[in-house]
Amino acid sequence: MAAGSRTSLLLAFGLLCLSWLQEGSAFPTIPLSRLFDNAMLRARRLYQLAYDTYQEFNLELLRISLLLIQSWLEPVQLLRSVFANSLVYGASDSNVYRHLKDLEEGIQTLMWRLEDGSPRTGQIFNQSYSKFDTKSHNDDALLKNYGLLYCFRKDMDKVETFLRIVQCRSVEGSCGF
């Protein structure tokens, strides 16, 4: 077949298809504005779903942080009594409990603001610290107390990390780790 006949065959086929599409209107035409409206509606729904998921994640990080803080209030007071006459716990021991209470209040305020004024009341961890020995001053008790201090340090690092993540996600331009 010659190149010219192929071209004329394709042109004839194209003209037949064009006339068939114009005559038949077999496919309903949807106005472009309606297509855009549908696309924008779906995009808005997806955005709202993503935003809600994002907020729930931030609230969950704050809730975990709050539970960690609240679970350490009693042990910090016990540590203070154990190390009252010791140089191990330092001069700033009286500030630790107060700082924990301040942090607890601050996290509750953040949760309240992120939830638009409806603070959740979650079940607080009532952890048992029966292994924490305030009476004995032997080496085993000191090791247990040291272990408790180590756990406290790790938990406070987690709280700080969680708060940084929430701040980075909630406050524009504050993602400087």
Keywords:
single chain; mainly alpha; 4 helices
Query: What is the CA-atom radius of gyration, in angstroms?
Result: 33 Å
Order of helices and strands: HHHH
How can the largest sheet be summarized?
A: none
Unreliable stretches covering 5 or more consecutive residues? 118-134
Number of separate helices: 4
Mean pLDDT, as a whole number?
Answer: 70
Strand fraction: under 5%
List how many beta strands DSSP finds: 0
Straight-line distance between termini? 71 Å
Classify the helix fraction into a percent range.
over 70%
| Main structural class | mainly alpha
User: What is the molecular shape?
Assistant: rod-shaped
GO molecular function: hormone activity; metal ion binding
Keywords: Hormone, Metal-binding, Secreted, Signal, Zinc
Binding site for Zn(2+): 160
Family: Belongs to the somatotropin/prolactin family.
How would you portray this structure in words?
With 177 residues, the protein is mostly helical. It has a domain at 36-117 and 139-171. Helix content is 72%, strand content 0%. It has 4 helices and no strands. The chain has helices at residues 3-24, 32-82, 93-114, 139-170. The longest helix is centred in the N-terminal third of the chain and has 51 residues, at 32-82. Residues 118-134 have low confidence and may be disordered. Its main location: secreted. It is found in: Secreted.
